[in-house]
Amino acid sequence: MKNIREIIISAIHESTGFLNDPKFFKSKNDNIDIIFSEIDIDSLSRFEIVMHIEEALDIELDSEDVFNHQSLFELEEYLNNIISA
């Protein structure tokens, strides 16, 4: 199973293609945070991202809760807490 960081990045990329932008490419392999406001994420993309994460982790999420987190690190911590609860 992929780690949560990889799942989030994959979900965001599948929905937005953000890894095609060189300034974000390093985030996939490095421990660099991604600020979601720097990525063009519309409401459809948000829905798709949540669906990808839910499917990969076999959990149900509230999309508003997911995007109350402003960065990759914050969302990763939130999901880790849900899974370990």
Please render the helix and strand layout as text.
Layout: H1 4-16, H2 22-29, H3 43-57, H4 63-66, H5 72-84
Describe this structure as you would to a colleague.
This protein is an all-alpha fold and 85 residues long. The protein has a single domain, classed as Orthogonal Bundle (Non-ribosomal Peptide Synthetase Peptidyl Carrier Protein, Chain A). The protein is built from five helices and no strands. It has helices at 4-16, 22-29, 43-57, 63-66, 72-84. The longest helix is centred in the middle third of the chain and has 15 residues, at 43-57. The protein is globular and about 35 Å long. The mean pLDDT is 84.
Helix proportion: 55-70%
Q: Write down the CATH topology.
A: Non-ribosomal Peptide Synthetase Peptidyl Carrier Protein, Chain A
Report on the biggest sheet: none
Mean pLDDT: 84
Secondary-structure element series: HHHHH
Oligomeric nature of the chains: single chain
